[in-house]
Amino acid sequence: MKFGVVIFPGSNCDYDTYYALKNVFKQKTTFLWHKEHDLKNVDCVILPGGFSYGDYLRSGSIAAFSPLMQEVKEFALRGGLVLGICNGFQILLELGLLPGAMLRNEKLKFLCQFIHIRVENNKTPFSHQAKKGQILKVPIAHFDGNYFASPETILEIKKNSQIVFRYSDAKGQLNEEANVNGSAESIAGLINKAGNVLGMMPHPERASEVLLGSEDGRIIFESIIAKLS
Amino acid sequence: MKVRILVSFKDSVLDPQGQAVKNTLHTLGYSSIKDVRQGKVFELELEGISKKEAEKIIPKISDKVLANPVIEKFSWQIIEKG
Q: Can you name the CATH fold of B2-80?
């Protein structure tokens, strides 16, 4: 089993993600360069957080057109596991692998803080080690995380149980205050209909060791590892 | 030929930045400003193609690259003939 972490110009969580996979979870991990067409036979592609291309045009939009992303799209359509974290989520939306789009945070502030998310769907390759309703304490760091989709798309997403994580308070209650960026349906993590592509705004790699303030992000990587083993 | 493309949020999408600008204008006393919507302007210089070809290309690239059709709409005009 091998993980691939994609590097775009402006990625800044690429090494954090690589470190978490390689050193914390002891997995074979390789970097993938955005200009290449080679996915190096990885079993799971991770699009890390950061500010690819300086967020020019729209967050994630330019990265979505990179040569490697066309391969990632093919890989995803063949059923390969793809996890987009933060900017990676934005790229997946721009690429059309996930429905909807990101708007600037409702209160127009860059948010960098620990928040809580509630596991809404634990029947995915990325969340099956968690319990439904489990609360995870994980950090966010983004400006454009205010998820938006048309009312028809929201209905479709709900019907297919595509919401994997929702912003909640520490007790698991959904409310306006907990929904820090103003996302529709408090969406923090969304999976595609086929169930192999997940986008999430929080950073599980930054919550994979006690030293970092939380280990709650581990469950996402542990789910993927268990699924691929 | 020069083309100007205007990209803005669809009417169904809230524009908090536009709202913030509106509030500032109100603070400054311009109470007649009813609403503000913020957008982006692109100016493209084209060469070696006819107006007819440009009319085909511009909506395509606007839809595919310059605007995100989930949240944005676009309009365009030729501002300099070439």
A: Mth169; Chain: A , (3.30.1280)
Report the greatest alpha carbon distance in chain A: 45
The kind and range of the H/E element at A6 are strand A2-7
Residue spans of the domains in chain B: they are 2-80
A165-217 tens-digit pLDDT: 999 999 999 999 999 999 999 999 999 999 999 999 999 999 999 999 999 99
State the smallest CA–CA distance between residue A164 and chain B in angstroms: 21
Tell me which chain B residues have a C-beta less than 8 angstroms from the C-beta of A61: 65, 68
Chain A residue numbers touching B11 (CB-CB < 8 A): none
Sheet holding A187-191, edge to edge: A28-33, A2-7, A44-47, A81-85, A197-200, A187-191, A163-168, A111-119, A135-142
CB contact under 8 A, B70 and A149: yes
* Contact with chain B for residue A96, Cβ under 8 A: no
Other CB atoms within 10 A of residue A27 CB: 19
Give bridge partners of residue A47 from the DSSP assignment: A84
* Among B74, B81, B82, CA closest to B42: B74
ipTM: 0.88
